Amino acid sequence: MFSNDVSLRDIQQLELKMLQFLDQICEKYNLKYYLCGGTLIGAAREKGFIPWDDDVDVMMPRKDYEWLLAHRDEIFTDKYFLYDYKIDKKENNPRRIPALCDKSMRILYSHGNVSREQYILLDIFVLDGMPKGKIRRNLHYYHFLVWHALLQLSWYDTTVNQYRADRSILEKIIIKLINSIKYRPNWDSQKLVQKENRILAKYPWECSDYVCSLLGPRKRKEILPKKYFDNTIKLKFENLMLNAPAMYHEELAHYYGDYMIPPTSKEEKELHHRIKIIK
Questions:
Q1: Which end of the chain has fewer beta carbons closer than 10 Å to its terminal beta carbon, N or C?
Q2: Which residues of 156-172 are buried (b: 16+ CB within 10 A; e: fewer)?
Q3: Contact criterion met (CB below 8 Å) for 119 and 103
């Protein structure tokens, strides 16, 4: 939902300028990025935004993202800034995924039990390496999962999406159970984020056969062959030409199956966000 004087298209136009800005920065400093998620589907299927989509997503290898974060004060303008919870801790507005933020507009997100305010965002999913061998990859994944579950529990009411239609039966049962319990642990979420980050950063991208973006919503499907990202191509997105993995078809099919068929139900179209503009 949107305020009376701001439409979804207005949001998308701001996000398009953010994509253009990030693309220019990455081109200038020779940094890698790739469209991903619904933004990559939009480029492949629509040559632009999915008509109902209200956010934009990219992936960056950790080495490139960490360089960008280290130089953020030199690079970003008054309008844009790079948010990272490891540094920008805000207990009243926790957010795990790094993001490029547009300070010209604020949004109220209402997908959790407690609403939260934030700026218009371009989500940056960091790509990390994985250990060699299926058993070691599984152990690494479950090690991450334990700490991620503790983090999610520490800020459960604000960040856990109560409305996602694609959750498993087990997830729905767990969410219903937690909602029925009033107690919430008072853990230091920033320390949990730092621990989680050390786990994710353990294996270098450059030495890995498989890579991952485990903060993404697809769980084990976030583990991908590195060859998907060996080469980059340009895809049309609205009036821009933006970076995508050369093997974007294989990536999207891995995540979504036949991604060229649009969802038909309103529920499928509203998997992510319930938002209201705050001017």
A1: C
A2: bebbbbeebeebeeeee
A3: yes
Residue 93 pLDDT: 56
Confidence class for position 158, pLDDT limits 50, 70, 90: confident
CA dihedral of residues 42, 99, 269, 228 (deg, nearest 10): 50
Name residue, tokens 């997105």. 237
Phi, psi of 127 (to 5 degrees): -95, 125
Q: Is 35:18 a contact under the CB 8 Å cutoff?
A: no
Residues 6+ apart with CB under 8 A from 273: 54, 55, 109, 111
Lowest average pLDDT, out of 28-32, 88-92, 150-154, 155-159, goes to 88-92
Instruction: Give the model's pLDDT for residue 91.
Output: 46
Q: How far apart are the C-alpha atoms of 207 and 104, rounded to whole Å?
A: 40
Average pLDDT over residues 206-214: 95
Which DSSP string corresponds to 257-272?
SSTTS---SHHHHTSS
- What pLDDT does residue 4 have? 44
